[in-house]
Predict the 3D structure of the following.
Amino acid sequence: MSPNRVIQNCNDSLNIMHINVQCLRNKCLELESIAHAHDYDVLCINEHWLRKEEIEVLSIQGYRVVTSFCRSSKIHGGVCILIKNSYKCTPLNLLGLSKEVNFEVVGLKYHNIEIVSIYRSPSGDFDIFMEQLLHMLETLNFRKLIIITGDFNVKFNTKDEQAHQLCNIFLTFGLKQSVFENTRMQSCLDNIFTNIPDFSVTVFDTYFSDHNAVGFTLGITSHKDCSGNNGRITYRPITNIGLFRMYNILEYVNWEFISDERIDSETKFDMFVKLFSETIVTTFPLKCRLATSTSREVNWFTDSLKQLRSTLQLCSDMLKSNSSLVTKEMLRNVKLRYKNELSKAKKMTNDKFIKKTLKIR
């Protein structure tokens, strides 16, 4: 699909992010910048660690909390779902099913889609979790599109018996696993189950949690093209981290076919283009964003912050590839600098807004 083609913005076109944030209290700016950078419509948050009174005043620019569960007797944990301010939705009546540590759940209904977010603590009782999960699944309307996100704390994609049981119960209700990459170190603990056949999934590092985030985009290829201003645009951004991955892939390509005299020049050219095109598709994945947006622009996220985040991404990727050019201490320093610069930029923007408001009065 051409980067300039516009896709109709129908009810079943939605960008969702799931993340185990491990305390949202001091990570609001990082979450806000990620949400707007990827144009997510819905944010499913696990382990926010907030009290009820803190959730009620949570401020993520452009989003509102639709539904949340907070622990009252234990510390940490908790789940919540945020959605863009311009989107109309209703909470699902699931809070009565939550049991601290064992099964924490919230959900919402948006048009013909029901979205659920679940957290299960690794110290929880798995039998209680499965019992509550079954009760929850029986309350959903399976004539609608179902998306269930969560940190289930079982090891998917292995011979783990609990993971096997969990996948089986979801399959019983026609819900299939969508995440097959590791989301925390060497394990896939987070996943999304759905009855939607047409979707794409991206697992990525947010740099503010030891869990990777999961981006879930549904229905992109099923919509007809249109030229209206309320559509979505697909594009392929060229990023520093993508360039680094591309160089790594191309470095290990066997280029001997170029000098092989048994292959004619036209075939060589076709082989080169095919190889290069496949590398670009792999290293620079397609993104989707609204052609126009009614939400407020995050004008505090400056070009220098974007560059610093790209540097952070590059350092993290190089460290993961065992590059000798980056150390853990260097990565920590870049993370700290990025966090400090985010805070400064947001404060400066708020100060300017207050001064401007006072002048108008």
User: Anything to note?
Assistant: Residues 1-12, 220-230, 292-296 have pLDDT under 50 and may be disordered.
